[in-house]
Specification:
mainly beta, two-stranded antiparallel sheet, 17 strands, 0% helix
């Protein structure tokens, strides 16, 4: 099970099975082609210096909790068949980069925005493949002003940003 991994390792969850993550866990990177349930807990990825990795192959997904990249850049690979999904809140201070030829979607998180600007900083980069949305206002919601806030997004030559009928507020789009 995911909660048997040791701190600061690359965990290959493809061969593992089990229920939701029982307690907060710290890894250098996580690779999966299945659905990982965080059980409402926080999964920390990265060591604060080097990029923290999340590899979602063949429609792998992660849900029900938070992913905290801390000071590490969030680097997420999506590839293979199927749509990879992140249905959790994402915390961190050094941006988010999506690469790989597959589709990655940010989906519903159970009420909180995927990227909360009080707990996430940096640009969203789409280097390859497609970054899509399965929920409205993924980037943030300002509860004091009752309106969405924006993050800057950079889309490279091999990347695609697909809002697909959802409502998103984006700062600068390059």
């Amino acid at each position: 099970a995911l909660d048997t991994a040791t701190a600061n390792t690359v965990w290959d969850a493809n061969a593992a099975s089990g229920g939701p993550l029982g307690a907060g866990l710290s890894l250098f990177a996580l690779r999966t082609n299945q659905t990982e349930d965080l059980g409402g807990n926080t999964l920390t990825l990265g060591n604060g210096t080097d990029p923290g990795g999340l590899i979602l192959n063949d429609g792998g997904s992660i849900s029900n909790g938070f992913i905290d990249f801390g000071a590490s850049e969030a680097v997420v690979y999506a590839g293979g068949a199927g749509t990879a999904a992140i249905n959790t809140g994402i915390l961190g201070s050094n941006g988010f980069t999506k690469f790989g030829d597959g589709r990655l979607e940010f989906g519903p998180t159970g009420g909180a925005p995927t990227f909360n600007l009080d707990t996430f900083a940096g640009k969203i980069n789409v280097n390859q493949g497609t970054l899509g949305f399965a929920a409205n206002d993924v980037f943030d919601w300002d509860f004091f002003k009752l309106e969405p806030r924006a993050l800057d997004v950079n889309v490279e030559f091999d990347g695609t940003l697909d809002v697909g009928g959802t409502s998103q507020r984006i700062g600068t789009l390059t």
